[in-house]
Automatic annotation (TrEMBL):
Span of domain PPIase FKBP-type: 75-160
The organism of origin for this protein: Noctiluca scintillans (Sea sparkle)
Protein name in UniProt: peptidylprolyl isomerase
EC numbers for this chain: 5.2.1.8
Keyword list, A-Z: Isomerase, Rotamase
Amino acid sequence: MAQAHLLSAFIKLVVLMTRSASVLHVSLVILLADTFTVFADVNSNSSEFQRIRKANTTFRILKEGRNTSAKVFDGDVVTCDSEGTLVSSGKIFWDLKNFRYTAGGTVIPGWDHGAKGMKKGEIREILVPASEGYGEAGFPAMGVPPNEDLRYVLKVLKIQEKDGIRKKKPRTPPTLAADLLKRAKDVEL
């Protein structure tokens, strides 16, 4: 229902913007359409894995987080329960409760990619290819052989936003559409 409302708002936005049809407006509409499609795919609670843009890591949401809670962004201090297994054997090599890390470079790239955007209470399964995990070296001390693909299950317990506050929240297509719909209420289509 909410997605239908947002889609309706997006369509109205497209109609409003294409009426003036300048190159800038058309480019913005194309950019918003592309972003909206990706956002809708990532937030679907399906059993299929979602590929992360500009990465080979994939994830699927096992349990939705709280809608009103903050999302994980670079610089945030995140506390989570985490379990890591080797894809080839299913062997657990990592199992920590209340693991605390700073998002954006303090864990392997695949973990960072897969955890971005998670909300408090959300549980994700993340599949990390070796190239975004421990690579050719592996991590022998933890029992991770070279070129091993990894599977993590993360549950976000707490998100401490960078500097205690979120200075600038990213604009998502649904929030853009909702804001523009509010401004366009008086415009008849």
